[in-house]
Specification:
Elements lengths: L10 E11 L7 E8 L4 E3 L2 E3 L6 H13 L1 E16 L2 E15 L9 E5 L1 H7 L6 H14 L1
Parallel strand pairs: 1-6
Antiparallel strand pairs: 1-2, 1-4, 2-3, 2-7, 5-6
Length: 144
């Protein structure tokens, strides 16, 4: 039937809106975006779940793999659904505060940027990723 998909066609993924307090002493919030050369895009760190992997576990693993940063998970920010390479994709996101680490370029991610929320909104390639910043900022008082 047109417009329907078998459950096994669904690509499950997870990620985080990685944030930190600005190291410049202004008390601002910075958001980490990753650049994926394969797609030449800027996005939040995310990736596919491994077989049997929990979504939050996958999200934290992807943050570490893509940014080199460890993080403390926070509020659930929602789930985004879209088509990717003609398959339905579901990405579940959490807020995550960076707790330490250092970026090293790899096959999937060649650059990261720490930007103000406004700067991150402007840099994100996909409009669907911008609303996650608003949801993060709404939840920051409960994360502090």
């Amino acid at each position: 039937m047109a417009g329907t998909h078998r459950r096994d066609d669904l690509v499950l993924a997870a990620g985080c809106v990685l944030w930190r307090r600005s190291p410049h002493g202004d008390g601002g919030t910075e958001i980490c975006l990753v650049h994926r050369p394969k797609y030449d895009d800027w996005s939040h760190p995310k990736g596919k779940l491994k077989r049997g992997e929990e979504t939050l576990t996958a999200a934290l693993r992807e943050v570490l793999e893509e940014t080199g940063h460890h993080c403390a998970p926070g509020a659930h920010l929602g789930t985004i659904h879209y088509q990717a390479q003609a398959r339905p994709k579901q990405v579940t996101y959490w807020a995550a505060e960076a707790t330490g680490g250092e970026f090293s370029a790899n096959d999937e991610v060649d650059r990261v940027l720490w930007l103000s929320p406004e700067g991150a909104r402007a840099r994100l390639t996909q409009a669907r990723d911008r609303a996650l910043i608003d949801t993060l900022l709404e939840n920051l008082p409960t994360l502090s």
